[in-house]
Specification:
By secondary structure, the chain is an alpha/beta fold. It has one domain: 3-Layer(aba) Sandwich (Glutaredoxin), CATH 3.40.30. It is 39% helix and 21% strand. A 6-stranded mixed β-sheet has the order 1-6-5-2-3-4. The longest helix has 23 residues. It starts with a helix and ends with a helix.
Length: 160
């Protein structure tokens, strides 16, 4: 009988050690300095059928993954329009979207993007996309920050 009581106590002891280890880890993660995958610049812009002019982008710009079927993308869209009006260049990557839906979505909501790249998932895979919307802040061709989910003013204060 005592042997049967000993096994649950060992299990609880192991669980307590695992919980202590899990909660004692540092929870903040810094994004490693990562260059932008070349595939983004090897894909032509949807509207003008030209490659992205990396010289014309300048030192700082944003890459934003979005889709017409994505409700949080619509929620952050006015903020992207505001960023564009302040002169910040944004590359929009339209992720796995129906072309007609994408075109009508841009016509209805405005186009804050300097370039729009249509992506079947290849660029998303190379950049490590978790889901849309997802935004990358680029400085000197290096990813400085990544926001998963819709952008808020607090996310961009440091970049204005």
């Amino acid at each position: 009988m005592k042997k049967n009581l000993f096994i649950p106590f060992i299990g609880l002891f192991i669980l307590a050690i695992c919980a202590f280890y899990y909660f004692s880890q540092v929870t903040t993660q810094k994004i490693e300095a990562k260059k932008i995958p070349a595939i983004l610049f090897e894909t032509k812009d949807f509207y003008n059928n030209e490659f992205i002019d990396t010289q014309g982008l300048g030192d700082f710009y944003i890459i934003n993954f979005f889709a017409s079927w994505c409700k949080p993308c619509l929620a952050e869209h006015p903020l992207l329009m505001e960023l564009q009006s302040k002169g910040i260049k944004i590359i929009g990557v339209n992720f796995r979207d129906d072309e007609e839906n994408f075109i009508s979505w841009i016509e209805e909501n405005g186009n804050p993007f300097e370039y729009v790249i249509r992506d079947d998932g290849s660029i998303a895979y190379e950049m490590g996309l978790i889901g849309v919307p997802e935004t990358y802040f680029i400085k000197s061709k290096i990813i400085q920050n990544k926001i998963q989910g819709p952008l808020f003013y607090e996310d961009i204060e440091n970049y204005l």
